[in-house]
Specification:
Largest interface: A-B, 10 and 12 residues
CATH architecture of chain B: Beta Barrel
Helix content of chain A: 25-40%
Number of helices of chain A: 15
Distance between the termini of chain B: 15 Å
Low-confidence stretches of chain A: none
Oligomer: heterodimer
CATH topology of the largest domain in chain A: Aspartate Aminotransferase, domain 2
Shape of chain A: globular
CATH class of chain B: Mainly Beta
Low-confidence stretches of chain B: none
Number of domains of chain A: 2
Chain lengths: 497, 129
């Protein structure tokens, strides 16, 4: 044997797949045979054991620990991913949720206490949003949208009305059309006004007896508050239609303004954005749906109610009213407990302050960056804003180049190329949890990127250089989708599966 | 930016060529350039009857997903199946081998409402400002 093999950096890139570490007999754990063979009788045979890597516990732990060291998260630094609201998640919420993690769903007295927590969260969300009823069961934002649109559909079905069109402004969240389509509606994209918000005067031409709802994101994906929302709600209601609000950006207005007061009939909130629970990497998330009184009976089952002795229990409603279940019992409970912890620890004034500081931080960044980068809409914004690459594009520097360059300064890039109403969009949301020093560091990085784009644009095409993986070939990856892992590797230039 | 003289154009950056009551439709050089590298295209089935302004295809780039709209009322009589495997043709040859669908025109008078090359060039230049 010769000497040791040096690594060029640590952790080493690329970390091999677990399959590479696989060797026969590494996993010495024995899985017991079923205690009663009859339970598997008659089930289809799998056709042999699954092809899993044969690795030990220590192999597995090291693999995932190494991968985690290549990752970047909100605990590493600023993550200004617009509209995704990557705010810091206070650790107290983890602590509280962990204490409830071991309660068994069949332990009725303990579950009564969990239900009390969930009921409290429902009531607090109703108060924050100005709505009359709440369902905590949807597992994420888009699931909340789907649930809300199913509630609206049910309301029309029960009345015997066959309305099928949902209007969606071009500044709404990208998931909205998909949620409506899955709920059985046909969507119609309508243009926002020249100032970046939907004008009530432009809505009339789209309204007819087939319009079930308008689905609006407020503040919208330009970070602009839909200032005509009350008039828009009145027009919809006069037409017999509902106003659905995507509450994914509620973090900009919580404690300050309430969607219910704006005329919203149905909405969802993202606990994993607004209320500081973990976000990304598969979640879990939570997307509670809130409705006005009229729609409450259509909410998904079951409902948290008080029994005769004053304790909290789960009840179903008559099946012809509720849309049915949308998740296994109690949704993502731990996320709800974390959100409740967040709300209780901040309190009413703390929530309001979080919203106002989120806006202040975004406005500070915008005011310092708008002279260096194109700002397509001059309309005042709240918690996020959208720049574009219009000033850099002429020198061959695109939004993608600038996003990649930010990684070399130790930042996660902002959201890019969305919303679609702005060509080459850079959508920046710092959130309230970034201190001034971090915002200044981000501004300094953007200033240097703007300067490099003037003086040495070619350099930006090489970014990122400091990240564990350099520029990836996104076009090739998108054209060659590999949806299942296989031993056969394909190389750029070949076609995938 | 290439804008062939013999074609018709829409404000949504589709082109159309007319022959024997049929219109061959694709997206313009400006559109493919704005979208960037195209990675996926999808069309409705042959036989679908559509109205002017209805979607007749979806074009996906690494940046965005966009719809292709029908320049006139008609029925889809042919789709370009080759683009499913080679979407990059849209970037390489948008006026040629990357045509998207062929429509059987329902109302020939609608063709006159489309822009000619000169009008489209002026339109794009104004939009770029």
């Amino acid at each position: 044997m010769s000497g040791g093999q040096r690594v060029t950096r640590f952790p080493e890139i690329p970390e091999p797949l677990l399959n590479v570490r696989s060797a026969p007999g590494r996993n010495r754990r024995m899985i017991p045979a079923p205690f009663d063979a009859s339970v598997v009788e008659g089930l289809p045979e799998a056709g042999g054991p699954p092809s899993l890597p044969d690795v030990s516990e220590v192999d597995t732990v090291r693999h995932f620990t190494r991968l985690s060291r290549l990752n970047y998260g909100i605990d590493h630094g600023m993550y200004p991913l617009g509209s995704c609201t990557m705010k810091y998640n206070p650790k107290i919420a983890e602590e509280i949720a962990a204490r409830l993690a071991r309660i068994h769903p069949a332990d009725a007295p303990a579950m009564g206490q969990v239900l009390k927590c969930l009921k409290t969260l429902e009531q607090m969300l109703q108060e924050i949003c100005g709505m009359d009823a709440c369902s905590l069961w949807p597992a994420a934002g888009a699931h909340g949208e789907l649930t809300g649109m199913m509630v609206i559909r049910k309301a029309f079905d029960i009345r015997g009305e066959k309305r099928r069109t949902v209007l969606i402004p071009d500044t709404a969240h990208g998931t909205n059309p998909a949620s409506c389509t899955i709920a059985g509606f046909v969507t119609k994209n309508i243009p926002s006004g020249p100032e970046g918000y939907l004008e009530a005067s432009a809505l009339g031409q789209h309204l007819n007896e087939d319009v079930a709802a308008l689905m609006i994101t407020n503040p919208n994906t330009l970070g602009i508050f839909e200032r005509e929302i009350r008039a828009i709600a009145d027009l919809l209601h006069a037409n017999g239609s509902y106003l659905y609000m995507d509450g994914a950006n509620l973090n900009a207005v919580m404690g300050v303004a309430r969607p219910g007061d704006m005329g919203v009939d149905c909405m969802h909130v993202n606990l994993h954005k607004t209320f500081g629970t973990p976000h990304g990497g598969g979640g879990p998330g939570s997307g509670p749906v809130l409705v006005k009184k009229e729609l409450a009976r259509f909410l998904p089952a079951p409902f948290i109610v008080r029994d005769e002795s004053g304790g909290f229990v789960l009840r179903a409603r008559p099946s012809e009213e509720s849309i049915g279940m949308v998740h296994s019992c109690l949704g993502n409970v731990s996320v709800c407990i974390k959100a409740l912890t967040y709300i209780l620890s901040l309190g009413p004034s703390g929530l309001r302050e979080a919203a106002t500081v989120a806006c202040l931080n975004a406005l500070y960044l915008k005011s310092r960056l708008k002279d260096l980068f194109d700002l397509p809409y001059a309309t005042p914004t709240l918690h996020e804003f959208v720049l574009s690459d219009a000033r850099q594009k002429g020198r061959g520097v695109t939004t993608m180049d600038m996003a990649k360059a930010l990684m070399d300064f130790g930042f996660h890039p902002p959201t890019v190329y969305f919303p679609l109403v702005v060509a080459g969009a850079l959508m920046i949301e710092p959130t309230e949890t970034e201190p001034l020093e971090e915002l200044d560091r981000f501004i300094a990085a953007m200033e240097e990127i703007a300067e490099t784009s003037r003086e040495d644009p070619e350099k930006l095409h090489e970014s990122p250089r400091a990240a564990p993986i350099s520029r990836v070939d996104e076009v090739w990856a998108a054209r060659n989708l590999i949806l299942t892992w296989s031993d056969e590797r394909i190389q750029p230039g070949e076609k995938g599966i | 930016m290439e804008i062939p003289k013999e074609l018709y154009y829409t404000q949504d950056h589709e082109w159309g060529s007319v022959e024997d009551g049929m219109m061959r439709v694709g997206i313009t050089d400006y559109a493919q350039h704005e979208l960037g590298d195209i990675v996926f295209v999808e069309f409705p089935e042959v036989g679908t009857v559509i109205a002017k302004g209805d979607p007749i295809g979806t074009v996906e780039s690494v940046k965005a997903v966009s719809e292709v709209y029908a320049p006139v009322d008609g029925e889809i009589v042919e789709i370009n199946e080759a683009l499913a495997d080679t979407p990059e043709l849209v970037n390489q040859d948008c006026y040629g081998s990357a045509w998207m669908v062929v429509l059987k025109i329902s109302d020939p008078s609608q063709v006159d409402t489309l822009m000619d090359a000169q009008a489209y060039r002026a339109y794009v230049e104004a939009e770029a400002k």
